[in-house]
């Protein structure tokens, strides 16, 4: 299970204290599992239905969860919004909607740049609460391996709130920090399960078929997903499909296309066609967020809801033209009334009012419901 060690692993934090890293990993390797193999297998079979067109997937939640946002109100807000969106989509799809949260573990962030400079001062970039603090001070930005232990506790507390809500949701996050994911991986009858979440995905920046992340994902029994940006080639995608779903199990592998509204119509068709021709069963999800990020004049990262809708439309068009299935949506969203994406009641001027994301801009409740209603319209055809 340690076969990923020794392979190139992108986006790992430069932990300054080796001893502390070893101690934190030792703590995690005997920590209680967060999810069971049975629940995890159930998600694989639900996703298998989506691969056959008998279900639609809604995956959503924060870009970056925060340790100090684990409150009943915030979790209920996110889950309530996700549940409402799922109802809207379900009514249109005529098949069950599989609810998957970016929740209870979505704490690690890959970054475009290793450092951030403000007023001539450079500090390590914020890499998510599991690595360092968002505050712009040397102390906060120093990677601290004990934060992985806090992330496990915050995930457990969030999961308790999720389980108490009644919203039937499975958990997911990006499998970015391999020390964390590896330490929570346990042997079960069905193989090795990463017990940190039901579904793990590999990000656009770490999907090198020869890299450590793909090797780790290939070894676990969980359902896995891979983000695909506009530079992904059919050859790479076929290699990923082969590595990650060699036994061709429906539901084992999802591809999350995040092309950008302008690129989706030209970048996605060759990938969809190549996968269809290979016969490897895959669920195709649309992430209309990460290819549509812009910087507003105020300096805030934002996403125009109109571009989000345009990418969703393009994704459906591509699948209709190829005769393949649009399997679901992957969104960065919250139940809170934030001002992070532009659209509806939020204009560029409003961005500073309630911009609470520590990383990427999320759809607020109203915008999330707008995207769900739009998706429902496309599902009705
Ligand atoms: O959530 C995704 C990435 O972590 C994020 O888009 C990277 O953002 P950056 O370009 O500000 O580093
Ligand atoms: C890091 C993310 O996305 P991507 O890997 O697609 O950039 C994300 O989903 O937050
Ligand atoms: Mn993001």
UniProtKB/TrEMBL annotation:
<dbReference type="GO" id="GO:0008652">
    <property type="term" value="P:amino acid biosynthetic process"/>
</dbReference>
<dbReference type="GO" id="GO:0003849">
    <property type="term" value="F:3-deoxy-7-phosphoheptulonate synthase activity"/>
</dbReference>
<protein>
    <recommendedName>
        <fullName>Phospho-2-dehydro-3-deoxyheptonate aldolase</fullName>
        <ecNumber>2.5.1.54</ecNumber>
    </recommendedName>
</protein>
<dbReference type="InterPro" id="IPR013785">
    <property type="entry name" value="Aldolase_TIM"/>
</dbReference>
<keyword id="KW-0464">Manganese</keyword>
<feature type="binding site">
    <location>
        <position position="63"/>
    </location>
    <ligand>
        <name>Mn(2+)</name>
    </ligand>
</feature>
<dbReference type="GO" id="GO:0009423">
    <property type="term" value="P:chorismate biosynthetic process"/>
</dbReference>
<comment type="similarity">
    <text>Belongs to the class-II DAHP synthase family.</text>
</comment>
<feature type="binding site">
    <location>
        <position position="227"/>
    </location>
    <ligand>
        <name>phosphoenolpyruvate</name>
    </ligand>
</feature>
<comment type="pathway">
    <text>Metabolic intermediate biosynthesis; chorismate biosynthesis; chorismate from D-erythrose 4-phosphate and phosphoenolpyruvate: step 1/7.</text>
</comment>
<feature type="binding site">
    <location>
        <position position="102"/>
    </location>
    <ligand>
        <name>phosphoenolpyruvate</name>
    </ligand>
</feature>
<feature type="binding site">
    <location>
        <position position="258"/>
    </location>
    <ligand>
        <name>phosphoenolpyruvate</name>
    </ligand>
</feature>
<feature type="binding site">
    <location>
        <position position="360"/>
    </location>
    <ligand>
        <name>Mn(2+)</name>
    </ligand>
</feature>
<feature type="binding site">
    <location>
        <begin position="204"/>
        <end position="205"/>
    </location>
    <ligand>
        <name>phosphoenolpyruvate</name>
    </ligand>
</feature>
<feature type="binding site">
    <location>
        <position position="290"/>
    </location>
    <ligand>
        <name>Mn(2+)</name>
    </ligand>
</feature>
<keyword id="KW-0170">Cobalt</keyword>
<dbReference type="Pfam" id="PF01474">
    <property type="entry name" value="DAHP_synth_2"/>
</dbReference>
<keyword id="KW-0057">Aromatic amino acid biosynthesis</keyword>
<keyword id="KW-0028">Amino-acid biosynthesis</keyword>
<keyword id="KW-0808">Transferase</keyword>
<dbReference type="GO" id="GO:0009073">
    <property type="term" value="P:aromatic amino acid family biosynthetic process"/>
</dbReference>
<keyword id="KW-0104">Cadmium</keyword>
<dbReference type="InterPro" id="IPR002480">
    <property type="entry name" value="DAHP_synth_2"/>
</dbReference>
<feature type="binding site">
    <location>
        <position position="332"/>
    </location>
    <ligand>
        <name>Mn(2+)</name>
    </ligand>
</feature>
């Amino acid at each position: 299970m340690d076969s990923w060690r020794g392979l190139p692993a992108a986006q790992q934090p430069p932990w300054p204290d080796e001893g502390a890293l070893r101690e934190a990993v030792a703590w995690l390797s005997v920590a209680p599992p967060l999810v069971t193999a049975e629940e995890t297998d159930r998600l694989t079979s639900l996703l298998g239905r989506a691969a056959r067109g008998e279900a639609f997937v809604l995956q959503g939640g924060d870009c970056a969860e925060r340790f100090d946002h684990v409150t009943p109100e915030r979790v209920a807000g996110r889950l309530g919004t996700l549940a409402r969106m799922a109802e809207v989509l379900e009514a249109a799809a005529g098949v069950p909607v599989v609810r998957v949260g970016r929740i209870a573990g979505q704490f690690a962030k890959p970054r475009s740049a290793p450092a951030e400079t403000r007023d001539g001062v450079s500090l390590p970039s914020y890499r998510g609460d599991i690595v360092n603090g968002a505050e712009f001070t040397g102390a906060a930005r120093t990677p601290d391996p004990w934060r992985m232990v806090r992330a496990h506790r915050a995930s457990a507390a969030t999961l308790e709130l999720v389980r108490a809500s009644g919203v039937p949701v499975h958990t997911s996050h990006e499998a970015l920090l391999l020390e964390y994911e590896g330490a929570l991986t346990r042997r079960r009858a069905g193989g090795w399960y990463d017990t940190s979440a039901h579904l793990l995905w590999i990000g656009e920046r770490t999907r090198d078929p020869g890299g450590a992340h793909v090797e780790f994902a290939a070894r676990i029994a969980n359902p896995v997903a891979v983000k695909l940006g506009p530079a992904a080639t059919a050859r790479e995608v076929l290699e990923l499909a082969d590595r990650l779903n060699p036994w061709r199990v429906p539901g084992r592998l999802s591809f999350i296309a995040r092309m950008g509204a302008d690129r989706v119509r030209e970048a996605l068709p060759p990938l969809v066609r190549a996968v269809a021709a290979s016969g490897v069963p895959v669920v195709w999800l649309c992430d209309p967020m990460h290819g549509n990020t812009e910087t507003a004049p105020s300096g805030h990262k934002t996403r125009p809801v109109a571009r989000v809708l345009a990418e969703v439309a393009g994704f459906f068009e591509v699948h209709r033209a190829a005769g393949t299935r649009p399997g679901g949506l992957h969104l960065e969203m919250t139940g809170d009334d934030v001002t992070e994406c532009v659209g509806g009641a939020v204009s560029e001027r409003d961005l500073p009012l309630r911009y609470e994301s520590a990383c990427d801009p999320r759809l607020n409740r109203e915008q999330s419901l707008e995207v769900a209603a739009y998706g429902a319209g496309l599902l009705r055809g």
